[in-house]
Write a structure and sequence with these properties.
By secondary structure, the protein is mainly alpha-helical. It folds into 2 domains: 3-78, no CATH class; 103-171. Helices cover 69% and strands 0% of the residues. The protein has helices at residues 3-9, 14-17, 30-52, 56-62, 68-78, 80-96, 105-121, 128-137, 144-152, 159-171. α6 packs antiparallel against α7. The longest helix has 23 residues, at 30-52. 17% of the residues are buried. The model has no long low-confidence stretch (mean pLDDT 85).
Length: 172
């Protein structure tokens, strides 16, 4: 299974894209302490997912690193050209994927969201509007009216909202 999907499913992906919060002072609200604790806990879990998915040699080189983002950065530097290839392949995924008539739209959306998460992990910046455009362009003819309505009404939503709307349209 794709590591980025595992980190997303485990709800620890966010530590790769978020710097470690500053150590809160003794007078800081509890929310700051909770956020710091949550980041440390999720970072540790993400670290072990990453360490468990790489070779023994790479494990030894990265086990002492504290932040998962540092591990990922180091791996990217070590395998720069392979990283570029991975990024190009990741870009190809959502652009070339088209839903097959009769496939549940939820399955298609989860696949597209996985591709877009992978692009995010690899450092590609794809704004929400572009993500929605990519997904809408991947739909088959049975969603033609939905796409037209979306654009005519200049709707805006996030991917999960789009998935819910598409499921409703599919049911109709």
């Amino acid at each position: 299974m794709n590591l980025m999907l595992v980190l997303t499913a485990a709800k620890v992906y966010w530590v790769l894209t978020t710097e470690e919060p500053e150590l809160p002072g003794p007078d800081s609200p509890q929310a700051y302490h909770d956020r710091k604790s949550k980041w440390l806990e999720d970072n540790e879990m993400a670290k072990y997912y990453i360490i468990g998915s790489i070779s023994n040699v790479l494990q030894q080189q990265h086990i002492g690193m504290a932040a998962t983002s540092d591990i990922m950065m180091n791996i990217k530097e070590m395998f720069g050209e392979q990283y570029l290839t991975a990024r190009l392949l990741a870009i190809r995924g959502p652009i070339s994927t088209k839903i097959v008539e009769g496939t549940p739209v939820r399955d298609h959306m989860l696949k597209m969201m996985g591709y877009l998460n992978e692009l995010d992990i690899l450092g590609a910046i794809v704004d929400v509007e572009t993500q929605i455009d990519i997904v809408l362009s991947s739909l088959c003819g049975s969603f033609k009216e939905f796409v037209m309505t979306y654009h005519m009404n200049k709707m805006t939503m996030i991917l999960t909202e789009l998935m819910n709307q598409l499921q409703t349209a599919e049911d109709l």
